[in-house]
């Protein structure tokens, strides 16, 4: 058998094994994100899930504003920017967690809009100034 044929045959034998290793090591294209203990693939999916949950339960409050929509329930406050806002798509979550003799407020944000608008949202949320989060 000529030398080039042997090399091709060795490569052909190794190729499926290398592909299998590559598939195992390659990151998944659709990665779930997590915000305040809730997993989601996109902010629109998270919004739809919370909207459905709020409509199905009397324990939730929904506040509709021109700049954002807020869901309050289950010891959490979720606020989503409307598509008219530069930060859109964006969400912020304030979660109340019991901590010994006190409570702790945990704030998390996700923002995929304009960088300067997202930086402002994060700063306001972390400062717990939610009155004009998406203004």
List keywords for this structure.
36% helix; alpha+beta; five-stranded antiparallel beta sheet; 3 helices; 135 residues; single chain; 31% strand; two-stranded antiparallel sheet; globular
Gist of the model:
With 135 residues, the protein is α+β, with helices and mostly antiparallel strands. 36% of the residues lie in helices and 31% in strands.
Description:
This protein is of the alpha+beta class. It is 36% helix and 31% strand. The protein is built from 3 helices and 7 strands, in the order αββαβββββα. The strands form 2 sheets. Strands 3-4-5-6-7 form a 5-stranded antiparallel beta sheet, sandwiched between helices. The chain has a two-stranded antiparallel ribbon with strand order 1-2. A hairpin with a 2-residue loop joins β4 and β5. The longest helix is centred in the first third of the chain and has 23 residues.
Q: What proportion of the residues form beta strands (DSSP E)?
A: 25-35%
Number of beta-strand segments:
7
* Secondary-structure element string: HEEHEEEEEH
**Strands of the biggest beta sheet: in what spatial order?**
3-4-5-6-7
Largest sheet: 5 strands, antiparallel
Low-confidence blocks of residues: 14-29
Residues in helices, as a percent range: 25-40%
Distance between the termini: 74 Å
Helix and strand composition category: alpha+beta
Tally of helical runs: 3
Shape: globular
Mean pLDDT: 81
Alpha-carbon Rg, integer: 23 Å
